[in-house]
Write a structure and sequence with these properties.
The complex is a heterodimer of chains A (113) and B (111). With 113 residues, chain A is mainly beta. Chain A has no helices and eleven strands. Helices cover 0% and strands 51% of the residues of chain A. In chain A, the strands form two sheets. In chain A, strands 2, 4, 5, 6, 9, 10 and 11 form a seven-stranded mixed sheet that branches. Chain A has a four-stranded antiparallel sheet with strand order 1-3-8-7, with no helix packed on it. Chain B has strands spanning 4-6, 9-13, 18-24, 31-37, 43-50, 55-58, 61-66, 71-76, 85-92, 100-101, 105-110.
Chain lengths: 113, 111
């Protein structure tokens, strides 16, 4: 059963702590993406990766870091430098080709307490 | 630059048609997409249209593309309460570039 899985669904973090959000896909997709969603803001791109061991900053990369050591995995670390980390985080992936539908995970809701 | 604009809210009565509008700025977009998001969930692709098409129909969904005005619309016929969700318009320029999303239109269906 192919898909893209994010975990955990809910995550609580104390201020000043780093936290890592998991994103795994078994669709054999080359490209993976992290978006942040805030009410009324739509989806804003944090980081993306088009190939293993390479990634690019999106529009709001400050305070976040990623790695792409394996094709299937694209974890996102929210660091203590991120000033407003409470949000809904969405991971997506797609193939590289003519029509490249992006598949989304179910999201992780991060709350800073 | 890249920018996708949508109105934020739409309310319709059950059984009526819903029309959600979107404007985009980059005429080099190759594909335009409509995604649906239910509360607390990820995004689900509803339909897409290639930039050399004017219209695409898929069951209750009709997508219209006006390239001259850079305007995209999604029409949902016979809207049901289960259609209540946030609908996102998105554009892509090439196959390996990130999707650019609008802010989403929250559709409320009144029974």
């Amino acid at each position: 059963d192919g898909g893209i899985t994010q975990s955990p669904k809910y995550l609580f973090r104390k201020e000043g702590q780093n936290v890592t959000l998991s994103c795994e896909q078994n669709l054999n997709h080359d490209a993976m993406y992290w978006y942040r969603q805030d009410p009324g803001q739509g989806l804003r791109l944090i980081y993306y990766s088009q190939i293993v061991n390479d990634f690019q900053k999106g529009d709001i990369a400050e305070g976040y870091s990623v790695s792409r050591e394996k094709k299937e995995s694209f974890p996102l670390t929210v660091t203590s430098a991120q000033k407003n980390p409470t949000a809904f985080y969405l991971c997506a992936s797609n193939n590289v080709g003519v029509n490249t539908e992006a598949f989304f995970g179910q999201g992780t809701r991060l709350t800073v307490v | 630059g890249e920018d996708v604009e949508q109105s934020l809210f739409l309310s319709v009565r059950e059984g009526d048609s819903s029309v959600i509008n979107c404007t985009y700025t980059d005429s080099s977009s190759t594909y335009l997409y409509w995604y649906k998001q239910e509360p607390g969930a990820g995004l689900q692709l509803l339909t897409y249209i290639f930039s050399n098409m004017d219209m695409k129909q898929d069951q209750r969904l009709t997508v219209l593309l006006n390239k001259k005005d850079k305007h995209l619309s999604l029409r949902i016929a016979d809207t049901q309460t289960g259609d209540s969700a946030i609908y996102f318009c998105a554009e892509r320029f090439k196959g390996n570039t990130p999707l650019v999303f609008g802010k989403g239109t929250r559709l409320s269906v009144i029974a």
